[in-house]
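Appendix B. One record, verbatim.
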Amino acid sequence: MKIYPVNTGHFKLDGGAMYGVVPQSLWKRLNPPDENNMCSWALRSMLIEDGDKLILVDTGLGNKQSDKFFGFYYLHGNDSLDGNLKKLGFSRDDITDVFLTHLHFDHCGGAIQHNKDRTGYEPAFANAHFWSNREHWKWATDPNPREKASFLKENINPIEESGQLKLLTKGVDGRTGAPELGFDVIIVDGHTEAQMLPVIKYQGKTIVFMADLLPSAGHIPLPYVMAYDIRPLITMKEKSAFLQEAADNNYYLFFEHDPISELGTVTHTEKGVRLDQTFRFSEVFGQ
């Protein structure tokens, strides 16, 4: 097995929205905002090469949305999914599986593209299965008013229509296995219903793809919960339980949105679980 971080670009979101009730005087030291109170965030996917499988975890924003849409989110930088796949010697057609932690547009937008004559949409990965779970798929396809703007039909419906959709089932303990993909999955409900976090055994260590339970290293303190979360108290409970487990077992946390740090570890302190160290992926796993 080989794992690669794949940055699909950077985008901007309101700092207050990303840090919730935490005062700006505290969070601005973690991610300094611009003059419009916007902070820059990564759109970092993970590529897993395992035998005849080439698995992409999340896809970033994609590029099919309108100029007006991108005017809100300021996609910027030189990184792109296609460009960084090419650097690794791959193309979209090589991807066998696309694992979507959840169906908010910044996690699944790149899964779908315009068709050839731009009259509709089609999967951007012609040879891949797309993985979600039954609970989250139902949630996203009949969205509540709070999340409706994040669950875009053009990102979701073409996946099902293609016949390439695979759905996992949430276990009674909030976890499930994905044996066809070779890893287990933690399922959490604070940010959105049934978000999935892959748990991957690699080089004798455990990597957890944090998605939006911990979008960055700066979100490790329990009160640092995004205003986007539909159930912030549940997020805090889930973070607390996960961070205890992560500190006990020396997990490496893979940050999808941290603008600088790709990986982090946590440790027990007198004040609870806190950030221990941050790393570039290559500092720990080579490549």
